[in-house]
Amino acid sequence: MSLKAHIAGQIAADGPMRIDTYMTTCLLHPTLGYYTTRTPFGQAGDFITAPEISQMFGEMIGLSLAQCWLDQGRPTPFSLVEFGPGRGTLMADMLRATRQVPGFVEAAQVTLVEASPAMQEAQRITLEGYDIQWRADAALLPDQPTFAIANEFFDALPIRQYVRDGAGWRERQVGLEEGDLMFGLGPAQPQPALKDRLEDTRDGDLIEERSSAAPVITALGERIAAHGGAALIIDYGDWRSVGDTLQAVRDHEPVDPLQDPGKADLTAHVDFEALAMAAPCAFSRLTAQGLFLERLGITARAQQLAQSMGDAALDQHVAAHRRLTHPAEMGNLFKVLALYPSDGAPPPGTEP
Ligand code: SAH
After folding, report:
1. Co-location of 27 and 39 in the same domain
2. Which of 15, 64, 291, 341 is deepest in the core (most CB within 10 A)?
3. Is there a domain that residue 130 lies in?
């Protein structure tokens, strides 16, 4: 059975489906979901992420977190955590780069938070030789100092969408029309949790809410507050957004999110304010990815790597540096929010 037929069957039986349910089903259905049936990253896949563009991305993140670890007095042991590690490339680059920091890799207990067994397998292969633990849920992270990275993780967590109607909200849902999946709106209802959004919206505006993000931030922030550590959260989005940002990407092109469920990646912009407000520890200023990487010295590192490259590799390398940092590429669209202990300093790259 196709995932589309499965979803249509559910809607026929139970009525319109919430968008968060639709997203979770598309991405993580045990046998037909996008992340459970493939590893979609890279040139040959559906989309490319920063760690797949250049090794420099993971190196800079590794050095930022290692500097925090040094500044906090080298707590040992500690958890080195990655959320949604994809192919494991970023963690491999971090672990390689931080070998230069005496004691860091030895003290690190690497934990990957990953829901998809197929992805876990890809990570196991990339990180062969390292002692890795997997957790399906942030609540199960060890209670100890925690240094963490989440790159393009929160955008994959399911959202709900609401359209403003007077003082109430109509939830956007997926329904069926003549056998095809269609968006529709539920009845207008008050939503106490969206009280703040009555201030910055007007009738007809659409807003998005991601309730599954707060428990992750809480679990992570509690460990940082109690035991020390830091987290870098990198994603596309802004402090707060208005409008429909649900997007599907297949073969590097945007497609209709309802067209081929399970065959395209499905994400939505991250509202960083909601993450920051859920944090039981200090949080940094929202920093553009380009600025963050420049502050950490990506240009000097790019020049150093360039010295041993031939023409073809060099062209690709220059393009990769530009893609990660330039404001017209990923430099401004992607943002970094850091979490850190209230009595500590924001991680390098995210200082005000
Ligand atoms: N960080 C990687 C991959 C980003 S794609 C990179 O930058 O290349 C999103 C990742 O999050 C995938 O590994 C996916 O399987 C995982 N994921 C998606 N939803 C998840 C969830 N609810 N819990 C844990 N992992 C999830």
Report:
1. no
2. 64
3. yes
Q: Which of 103, 91, 108, 99 is nearest to 55 (CA)?
A: 91
- For ligand 1, the distance from its centroid to the CA atom of residue 241, given in whole angstroms, is 22
190: helix, strand or coil: coil
115 Cβ below 6 A of ligand 1:
yes
Kindly state the tokens that stand for 229: 């550590």
pLDDT for 63 = 97
The torsion angles phi and psi of 52, rounded to 5 degrees, stand at -80, -15
Nearest to 320 by CA among 350, 293, 347, 286: 293
Read off the tokens for 28: 């993580």
* Ligand 1 pocket mutation, candidates 21, 61, 116, criterion most atoms within 8 A of CB: 116
Q: What is the pLDDT of residues 319-345, one digit of tens each?
A: 999 999 999 999 999 999 999 999 999
pLDDT reported for residue 45? 81
Is residue 16 domain-shared with residue 39, that is, in the same domain? no
- Looking at the fold, whether 236 and 183 belong to one and the same domain comes out as no
Please list, in sequence order, all residues whose beta carbon lies within 8 angstroms of the beta carbon of residue 73, skipping any fewer than 6 positions away: none
| Together in a domain, 274 and 238 | yes
Ligand 1 pocket, residue 116 CB under 6 Å: yes
* 105 shares a domain with 45: yes
Ligand 1 binding pocket includes 265 (Cβ within 6 Å): no
Q: For residue 13, tell me if it sits in a domain.
A: yes
Per-residue pLDDT, 245: 97
Please give the distance, rounded to the nearest whole angstrom, from the Cα atom of residue 113 to the centre of ligand 1: 8
CA distance 164 to 201: 7
Query: What integer pLDDT is reported at residue 133 of this predicted model?
Result: 97
Q: Do 25 and 102 fall within a single domain?
A: no
pTM of the predicted protein model:
0.96
From atom 20 of ligand 1, which residue's Cα is the shortest distance away?
A: 115
Residue 310 and residue 335 in one domain: yes
Residue with CA closest to ligand 1 atom 11: 84
User: pLDDT at position 347, please?
Assistant: 98
Q: Judge if the beta carbon of residue 86 lies within 6 A of ligand 1.
A: yes
The answer on 139 and 126 residing in a single domain is yes
